[in-house]
């Protein structure tokens, strides 16, 4: 059983999607990022910068316990552990990988700062244009549904920005609507993560 240390944020819900999609047993350990819980010496041993999400797999590589943070890396780890959602042949796996990095290093970071830094609106719109153009002819980012879709969907399933109306990007909306119909994604976005309620 994997221990997932997380909180109810966009980044924090991302690994739940993959844990659910792969049927990997896990339990949620809520870490309130506002009350100092993410700065305890015990937590910093798992996540050195005190960030959620992170997880501990008692059956990691070499049959040893393994801990990992950074949500996109966690999805890649689970993909390798379960042999799912990483792409098919070598070309497709690299397509999945490059979109994972595109979303993790551009989209996730720029959008998470948008509400605090409105100057980022044009950069966010450039990223949305790139996504929308790609999705004109593609149902998913890299062939079949993969972690290249799971990395960004937690952001777009809960898209709340006054500056940008997502309906201006109809192919992104079509992709989002297809994904949020998936039970794993619905569950990940809705499961309560506050300490008193987390009963996973
Ligand atoms: N790139 C990291 C970002 C993680 C991150 O920024 N986590 C935030 C919550 S969404 C956090 O832990 N904030 C609390 C803090 O920095 O003290 C990932 O994708 O896992």
Structure in words:
- The chain is of the alpha+beta class and 200 residues long.
- The chain has two domains: 2-83, Glutaredoxin (3-Layer(aba) Sandwich), CATH 3.40.30; 90-185, Glutathione S-transferase Yfyf (Class Pi), Chain A, domain 2, CATH 1.20.1050.10.
- Helix content is 50%, strand content 9%.
- The protein contains eight helices and four strands; from the N terminus they run βαβαββαααααα.
- The chain has a four-stranded mixed β-sheet with strand order 2-1-3-4, covered by helices on one side.
- Strand 1 (2-6), helix 1 and strand 2 form a beta-alpha-beta unit.
- Helix 1 (10-22) runs antiparallel to helix 8 (183-190).
- The protein is globular.
- The mean pLDDT is 96.
Main features:
Glutaredoxin; Glutathione S-transferase Yfyf (Class Pi), Chain A, domain 2; 2 domains; four-stranded mixed β-sheet; 50% helix; binds glutathione
What's the helix and strand layout?
Layout: E1 2-6, H1 10-22, E2 26-30, H2 41-46, E3 54-57, E4 66-69, H3 71-82, H4 90-114, H5 121-136, H6 147-156, H7 170-180, H8 183-190
Parallel strand pairs: 1-2
Antiparallel strand pairs: 1-3, 3-4
Helix pairs in contact: 1-3, 1-6, 1-8, 4-5, 4-6, 5-7
Bound molecules: glutathione (GSH).
Beta-strand percentage range:
5-15%
Instruction: Predict the CATH topology of the largest domain.
Output: Glutathione S-transferase Yfyf (Class Pi), Chain A, domain 2
What order do the helices and strands follow? EHEHEEHHHHHH
- The whole-angstrom Rg is 17 Å
Assigned CATH class of the largest domain: Mainly Alpha
Task: Quote the distance from N terminus to C terminus.
Answer: 12 Å
């Amino acid at each position: 059983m994997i221990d997932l240390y997380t909180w109810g944020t966009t980044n924090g819900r991302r690994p739940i999607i993959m844990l659910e999609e792969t049927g990997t047993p896990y339990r949620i350990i809520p870490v309130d990022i506002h009350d100092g819980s993410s700065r305890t010496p015990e937590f910093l041993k798992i996540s050195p910068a005190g960030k959620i999400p992170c997880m501990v797999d008692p059956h990691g590589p070499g049959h040893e316990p393994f801990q990992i943070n950074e949500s996109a890396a966690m999805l890649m780890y689970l993909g390798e552990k379960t042999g799912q959602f990483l792409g098919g042949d070598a070309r497709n796996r690299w397509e999945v990988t490059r979109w994972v990095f595109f979303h993790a290093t551009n989209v996730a970071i720029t959008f998470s700062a948008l509400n605090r830094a409105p100057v980022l609106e044009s950069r966010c719109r450039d990223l949305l244009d790139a996504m929308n153009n790609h999705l004109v002819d593609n149902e998913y980012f890299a062939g079949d549904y993969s972690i290249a879709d799971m990395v960004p969907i937690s952001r777009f399933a809960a898209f709340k920005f006054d500056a940008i109306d997502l309906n201006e990007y109809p192919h992104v909306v079509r992709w989002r609507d297809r994904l949020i119909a998936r039970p794993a994604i619905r569950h990940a976005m809705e499961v309560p993560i506050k300490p008193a309620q987390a009963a996973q």
